[in-house]
Each structure stands twice: as structure tokens, then as C-alpha cells.
Amino acid sequence: MLLDGQAGEIVLIGDAQALATALRRLFADDMLRAHYVQVFREQVLPLYSRDRMIAAYERGYTVLEEDAVRAGKIVPLEN
After folding, report:
1. Is the Cβ–Cβ distance between 39 and 7 less than 8 Å?
2. Which has the least CB within 10 A, 20, 33, 43, 79?
3. Rg for the chain (alpha carbons), in Å?
4. 8 A C-beta contact, residue 75 and residue 69
């Protein structure tokens, strides 16, 4: 997740001029770059810890399995 203007900058796909402008701003401004890194580490990175990502994948696959069972595409496993 990128927090535009808080932990980085978002530019439109294919907008080379906007990308060049954003990169020049980051290369020229050490304090801005350090601020983006700090905010990213504090606010964004914790959302993607190993344990949170594993839990999210498990939830996703559980939903897919439940949908497949309801649709009759697979038979549920007995415990």
C-alpha cells in the first residue's frame, strides 16, 4: 500500500514525465525521502508481516473452498 504524499508518490501508468518529476524530487530532497521511509516502516510495513500475510492467504483459500463446495464443484473433506 502506498500512501500518496505520505509514504511515497503515486504517478499514473505511462506518465514518464510525472515519474521523472517524482524521482527528481526524491533524489533532491533527503528529508522528504527519509520521511517517506519512516512513514512506510511505521504505517505500511506492519500491514504486510509474514503472519498477517499467511492469515490473509488462509482466509482467501478458505473462502474459495467454501464457494466451490456450495457450487458442488468439490466435496468437503471430513475431519
Report:
1. yes
2. 79
3. 20
4. yes
Q: Is residue 64 scored above 90 in pLDDT?
A: yes
Q: What is the phi/psi pair of residue 71, to 5°?
A: -80, -5
- Rounded Cα–Cα distance for residues 42 and 35 (Å): 11
Q: Is the pLDDT assigned to residue 66 strictly greater than 60?
A: yes
Backbone phi, then psi, for 40, in 5-degree steps?
-60, -45
Question: Tens digits of per-residue pLDDT, 1-56?
Answer: 566 677 788 999 999 999 999 999 999 999 999 998 998 899 888 888 899 999 99
**How many of the other CB atoms lie within 10 Å of CB of 46?**
9
Q: Which three cell numbers stand for residue 34?
A: 527519509
pLDDT of residue 48: 85
